[in-house]
Amino acid sequence: MSPGSRVALFATCINDTMKPSIPIATVKLLERLGCTVSYPEKQTCCGQIMTNTGYYKEALPTVRNYVDSFEDYDYIVGPSGSCVGSVREQHAMLAHRAGDGGLEEAATAVAGRTYELTEFLVDVLGVTDVGAYFPHRVTYHPTCHSMRITKVGDRPLQLLRAVRGIDLVELPMADQCCGFGGTFSVKNPDVSIAMASDKARHVRSTDAEYLVAGDQACLMNIGGILHRQRSGIHTIHIAEILASTEKEVSVA
């Protein structure tokens, strides 16, 4: 990243609404690493739920808003593999289906500058040790969209392994879906609960204090089961761990 590059935070609507500590931790982390971060206030939903449900026409305004919000920035960083995946894989498609060539070109360009947080840290900033400290037993859930659509690979694990004090334990059957899937959990609640219960069982088998992931929606789904089971296991976003230091250890 060259000096003077403009970095914008793509907070995502679920983080902004359900757990604003995640975008706050993201900014704290990026600023600690030398970035100057802006927050375009007119940003909103990426439109993934509407797109996944087939409401392409209704999702199109979110594409225009995303382009308008972020087109002036060199890098857009989002703490969500799912939402970043939607921007990169769906926005240009929506514009193309609408026959809007100008929007398709602009959406493609902006999507190409949109990074999931761990991608940005490892690939753009070139760091895996971000100076974090988190003295707890932790297990990591690789969310489906982050792995299969955004393709973050092992970047989250590279970053977690460099955290001082952490006891990172492998999650059995880690590649299995947690059952959230956006509207899937609403349309198929019984199946979703069964899948989340399987995931929670595997999490409990690790004796971890915290379950970490890069998508808050998945953490909410699994965390709901863990909470109802009174497991004592907390959920935490990877941004919150990476933002933690010896001076101020964040907790979920």
Automatic annotation (TrEMBL):
<feature type="domain" description="Cysteine-rich">
    <location>
        <begin position="7"/>
        <end position="86"/>
    </location>
</feature>
<feature type="domain" description="Cysteine-rich">
    <location>
        <begin position="138"/>
        <end position="222"/>
    </location>
</feature>
<dbReference type="Pfam" id="PF02754">
    <property type="entry name" value="CCG"/>
</dbReference>
<dbReference type="GO" id="GO:0005829">
    <property type="term" value="C:cytosol"/>
</dbReference>
<dbReference type="GO" id="GO:0016491">
    <property type="term" value="F:oxidoreductase activity"/>
</dbReference>
<protein>
    <submittedName>
        <fullName>Fe-S oxidoreductase</fullName>
    </submittedName>
</protein>
<dbReference type="InterPro" id="IPR004017">
    <property type="entry name" value="Cys_rich_dom"/>
</dbReference>
